[in-house]
Each structure stands twice: as structure tokens, then as C-alpha cells.
Specification:
Elements lengths: L8 E10 L4 E8 L5 E8 L3 E6 L6 E8 L4 E5 L2 E3 L6 H13 L2 E11 L10 E10 L11 E6 L1 H10 L5 H15 L6
Helix pairs in contact: 2-3
Length: about 190
């Protein structure tokens, strides 16, 4: 099956904001029916998300203040992929920097696109097991705390709205499916 009847084609465009982290693009596109429209979207370098599972099955999460929403969120450890950086190496780096933990077993879970209407951001999710505690090395200006919870607590917090971060919601569902043996990573 072809998707040509749905595809939009870039005619021209420009970067309207070029920040340290994000870029905003404004393009003129040709629609499938031949008419034209504009698309404004955020260019994002991509990020990794880590689902850190302790040997007893409990999960390591973080609490971090997020300025755009003016509140503290429960989240899985995550971070931006540097240019040319291998995704797994980025996940290992972020887990160590943010939590102090390293892991002896890593598995790729999936890629998610969390804001497809206005961003090209992609998140590469990894499962980390065989956790070994160590010293965190937070980036300058980064403040967070870690907490250990059960998968059932995560799911309850998702259901109650205490967890609303999309990567953490999806990661929690993956952990539940893996725990139940309904999904596997092999």
C-alpha cells in the first residue's frame, strides 16, 4: 500500500527560532490535493528514556520540577541525545548522571514519538536491569531526587493522574506487560 495520497511535500521554509536546545521551523507545504498550507514545528534532537528495574522488581523513578508546567513531575530517567551519540551509550550516561546507578543488562524497548503534530522528537526507551548503586553526577542547573516504587504504584499514579508525563505513562504500561509476561523484548 502506498501513502502518496496522504503525503505533504515541502515547498520551502525557514528556521524561525534557533535555540541552544530546540529549533522552530516554519515550512510551506503542498498538500495531497495540490493546495498549499503552512506547518510550524519544533525540531528536537531526540532523547532516551530508561526503565530502571531493581533486582527485587521495584522501579527507580525521579521527581523533577518542570518549568513549562510549573510543577514537580514523576518521571523515568531520561535525557537528550548528543549529536552522533549512540542511543544506548546515551541511556547509560543519563542513568549514571541522574541517578548514580549503572546497569549490567540493557534491552531496547521501543521508539515513541510523543508530539507528532508539532515536533519531530523521538524517544528511545531502554530497560535497565542488574542495577548497581553509585554516585549521581547531575548536570549544572539540574535538580532532581530519586525514589523507588512498585509497578503497581506507578500504575495507580497513572490512573489517578499523579503521573501524566507521556514517557512515564508508556514506560509504566510496558513494565506491567513485561512483568505479566504478556510482552517480551526478545
Amino acid at each position: 500500500m502506498t501513502d502518496a495520497h496522504l503525503k505533504e511535500t515541502r515547498v520551502d521554509g525557514e528556521t524561525v527560532y534557533d535555540g541552544h536546545f530546540l529549533k522552530v521551523q516554519k515550512d510551506r507545504v503542498k498538500l495531497p490535493d495540490g493546495s498549499h498550507s503552512e506547518r510550524e514545528f519544533i525540531r528536537h534532537p531526540g532523547a532516551v528514556v530508561i526503565l530502571p528495574v531493581l533486582d527485587d522488581g521495584r522501579i527507580l523513578i525521579e521527581r523533577q520540577y518542570r518549568y513549562p508546567n510549573d510543577r514537580v513531575f514523576y518521571e523515568f530517567p531520561a535525557g537528550k541525545i548528543d549529536p552522533g551519540e549512540d542511543h544506548l551509550e546515551c541511556a547509560k550516561r543519563e542513568l549514571k548522571e541522574e541517578t548514580g546507578y549503572t546497569a549490567t543488562e540493557w534491552k531496547f524497548v521501543c521508539t515513541i514519538h510523543n508530539a507528532i503534530a508539532y515536533s519531530d522528537e523521538h524517544l528511545e526507551i531502554f530497560l535497565a536491569r542488574g542495577l548497581i548503586e553509585g554516585e549521581a553526577a547531575l548536570d549544572e542547573g539540574e535538580f532532581l531526587e530519586t525514589q523507588v516504587v512498585t509497578v503497581d504504584e506507578l500504575l495507580a499514579w497513572v490512573r489517578e493522574g499523579q503521573i501524566s508525563d507521556v514517557k512515564t505513562v508508556i514506560g509504566s504500561f510496558w513494565l506491567d506487560k513485561l512483568r505479566r509476561g504478556e510482552w517480551s523484548l526478545d
